[in-house]
Prior knowledge:
The chain is of the alpha+beta class. It has helices spanning 10-13, 17-26, 107-116, 118-144, 147-162, 172-179, 183-195, 211-217, 221-234, 240-244, and strands at 28-32, 37-39, 47-61, 67-73, 93-106, 167-168, 199-202, 205-208. The two termini are 31 Å apart.
Amino acid sequence: MSEPHLESNVLLRSLEPASKARFAERFQKFELVRGDVLHNLGDEVEWVHFPRHGLVAVMAETVAGESVESGMVGREGALGIFEACGTGQLFTRAVVQVGGEALRLPAASYRELFLESASLRTAVHKYVEFLLLEARQFVLCNALHTVESRLCRAILDTLERSGLDRALPVTQESLAQMLGAQRTTIAACVSKLYRDGVMKGGRGSLEILDRPGLERLCCSCRETLRFARGELQASDDLSCEAVLS
Ligand SMILES: [Zn+2]
């Protein structure tokens, strides 16, 4: 595995050169196929996946088997990076929503690299901080913002995290699951966006025709989270690592 492959994942890009070289020795390429399940609730962590492009939906499930998307992981993040260094168990189901490619390594190898690399630990801390902030923001979003504005935000987030430009291979069903909304509500919002010329539909996909228009229709959470992500990425390392070094 050559080091340039690591650059398309934001977490791996932020590592120091020595850590990149150690990762590059151990990674293998892994194809993300739409609909494939990477892990199920209750599984032990076997692999840690860092998407280069494509998108994985993280689903929370009820005991009765109902599920709602509780997060998505694309090239900005990774799957299994917390659990591999914690309980070793997974409490969600991960399903590939947009096909692509990930780099993966066994959880045991990841744990060794995590202990060796201060820059990896810093990157993971910042990622955790962002995910917590995002979860809190989405509580506000679900309570205060309209489904249409949340849908527009989710479509743009999905495009960016999966590394796509205009065409997004998602169905209205998966958008409804992503937002925890009724399929009929999503269908009405999508029809309006078609009529307004913001996007058009294909077979199991959406094509963005007017990206500035879609940006304008997004709820304010998009800008809040973009600002927070920028601040986190630009921030100095104030972790215990930096204090102790
Ligand atoms: Zn919002």
